[in-house]
Specification:
The chain has helices at about 5-10, 15-30, 40-55, 60-70. The chain has about 70 residues and is mainly α. The chain has one domain (about 5-70). The protein starts with a helix and ends with a helix.
Length: about 70
């Protein structure tokens, strides 16, 4: 980041800085392929999906009903 841009950002209010970060994040998120998924993240996602497939747990309606009976 150049010094002029850093100086301009430092003059923003906290609210303006948050809005700026939100705008920047939205631009990054709009291009999902801009940041590749690291292999470690992919491995963790695969592990979690396999775990869920082998034991999906209980439906929310069942858990809710059990809690409401207490």
């Amino acid at each position: 980041m150049n010094a002029v841009l850093a100086a301009e950002i430092s003059r923003l209010s906290p609210t303006e800085k948050i809005l700026l970060v939100e705008d920047i994040w939205d631009q990054i998120a709009a291009d999902g392929d801009a940041l590749p998924l690291p292999a470690t993240h992919r491995a963790e996602l695969d592990r979690r999906l396999a775990s869920d497939a082998s034991d999906p747990g209980r439906p929310w309606s069942e858990v809710r009903d059990e809690l409401l009976r207490r």
